Amino acid sequence: MITLDNITKTYNKGTVLAVKDISFEVKPGELFGLIGPDGAGKTTLFRILTTLLLADKGRAMVNGFDVVKDYTKIRNSVGYMPGRFSLYQDLTIEENLHFFATVFGTTIKENYALIKDIYQQIEPFKDRRAGKLSGGMKQKLALCCALIHKPAVLFLDEPTTGVDVVSRKEFWEMLARLKAEGITILVSTPYMDEAKLCDRIALIQKGTILSVDNPADIVQSFPGDLYAVQAANTHLLLREARAYEGTETCFAFGDALHVTFRSGVADGLLAHLKTRGLDDATMEKITPGIEDCFIHLLKN
Amino acid sequence: MKTLGFLLEKEFRQLLRNRQLLRTLLLAPLIQLIILPLAADYTVKNIGIAVADNDHSTTSLRLIEKIVSSGYFKLQGYTASYHDALGMVEADKADLALQIPAHFESDLVREDKKQVYVAINAIEGTKANLGGAYLNSIISDFNENVRAQWQVGSASTGSPEEAPQVSVASSNWYNIFLNYHLYMVPAILVTLVTAMVAMQSAFNIVQEKESGTIEQINVTPIKKHIFIIGKMVPFMVLGIVLFTMGLLVGWIGYGIVPLGSLWVLYVSLIVYLFSMLGLGLLIATYSGTQQQAMSLSFFFINIFNMMSGVFTAVDSMPAWAQAIVTTFPPSHFIKIMRAVVLKGSGFSDILPWLGALAVIGIVLNGWAVLNYRKTS
């Protein structure tokens, strides 16, 4: 449904590399996640795929159309929700929705079934101007506007950035329902915990793809065992754990350290820590998360 | 075409919703149109004059009386010495010092000529210029009168050497009384329409860039030229409304009724708005923020106002400046306005200017569209 073939894009006359030789494929009906930190090149990819930006090199197809040659056909068949709220703030909810329906040559009524679940939540405020809405409501309106012409592919650029935890959860539930309608969705997010909600993910960093797979397989591919180490004095703990000769990687995750060892399995770290005055140190084996895999891939 | 309808519906909805802006756009120019022509009046009155009369004769008194009764001058001081009169100019109590030398009358009778001396404060150029010219013409008029009287008095002696003088009689066509309002109101109306249309259309488009809505529009099937027309039409309408209100103010406030046909005026207006909207669009393609658009359009508007012949005649500018001015849409439209309003010109008379406007409009719009494609 979406194919990228060696896409490269630079800014400022080639001095700033945004994305380099990106290739991956999104299958029809898939919920595909583009996971990476800020500045990784996610938005650049979105802008290339939505025909807003021309790549320097490479080819990309969306819904069977070339992003350069058939851009008008793509514009008719995709929905795009940019990272920044980009609807008319001085028009009301209903006027915005009506406007975007009409420019796509359709009506709210015609595709109401698709947006019903989402629109019903903001319908009580339909006469309120978009600029006066809360963050969560703006996001729902933007999704409605991106969906109103029943697109085959939906592009969501960081839809949950700056949205509270409950709304984020709700939003992903909405995406699951849209996927059930058969819409192919490409979504980007800097939140690793959202990655496991996707069918497949691409981990992206500094303009290159680190890995493309389903979340379970990415976690599976994590080599060796991962341990969570905790102690009251986290500062001393981090220093000692990193200094320990058997440690391969050691990163702070909240109030715990995630540690891997050169030998692959836990060895005498705990005993070592006790000799350094960290008597309360505990260690347990844990299942790696996407973020652990991401950091692991970054190191290689 | 249907899409254009939806775009226009959206544009007008937004425009009408922004009441504060709409009020400013329509009322502020009208207030300016009422105030500016009253202030921008070239007629110089109340020129202060200090006279040092060293003669104290009937002739010198008659000269002074003639100067004061002209209506342009106000006698601020009648001093004993030229030094005192100049002192009044220095103290800013008078604009002119006139010295009538001793034996003015007797020398004039005996030698048939006598000089008077005039010192003018030239800090205010226009006032000095016109004041000096007025005074000059009054004195030469006085001179002729005096001589004519003497000649009548001494007709028998007659002076054969007195050559017949060439006198120039001028009459002001199209504006008999040199009424400055008649001349200024149409031009000021042009500057107001110019500022509103060029700046606002630029700001409006840049605002869509700033708020990111143009991205959202760009991923819809809306064609670029439809989007641009959708932006132009509302400001074209606004410009026509403003122009109409301005004509009404000119009629009610200054009694100015265009001699030519309104049809000619409005067709020219539409061509003019087309070219100015092209400029607005061009500014918008070169600006990323409203602040940038503001400074760019301010640059153009200022130059247009000073160089397009509103206040100073383009014909008296240096050749290079005149060449530049021909590329300014307002200079052509001001000429059209004055010709149609004051002279009653028809299409055939204004065709060169109208053609220039159309060409400038096509160039500006074409440039803007090309640049718009390139940047997005």
UniProtKB/TrEMBL annotation, chain A:
Keywords: ATP-binding, Nodulation, Nucleotide-binding, Transport. Residues 2-231 form the ABC transporter domain. Signal peptide: none annotated. It comes from the Bacteria. InterPro entries: AAA+_ATPase, ABC_transporter-like_ATP-bd, ABC_transporter-like_CS, ABC_transporter_ATP-binding, P-loop_NTPase. It holds the Pfam family ABC_tran. GO terms for molecular function: ATP binding; ATP hydrolysis activity. SUPFAM superfamilies: P-loop containing nucleoside triphosphate hydrolases. Belongs to the ABC transporter superfamily. This is ABC transporter domain-containing protein.
Automatic annotation (TrEMBL), chain B:
It holds the Pfam family ABC2_membrane_3. Belongs to the ABC-2 integral membrane protein family. Its main location: membrane. It is a multi-pass membrane protein. It comes from the Bacteria. Residues 132-375 form the ABC transmembrane type-2 domain. The chain crosses the membrane at residues 21-40, 180-199, 233-257, 263-284, 296-314, 350-370. Keywords: Cell membrane, Membrane, Transmembrane, Transmembrane helix, Transport. It is found in: Cell membrane. GO terms for molecular function: ABC-type transporter activity. It comes from Puia dinghuensis. GO terms for cellular component: plasma membrane. This is ABC transporter permease.
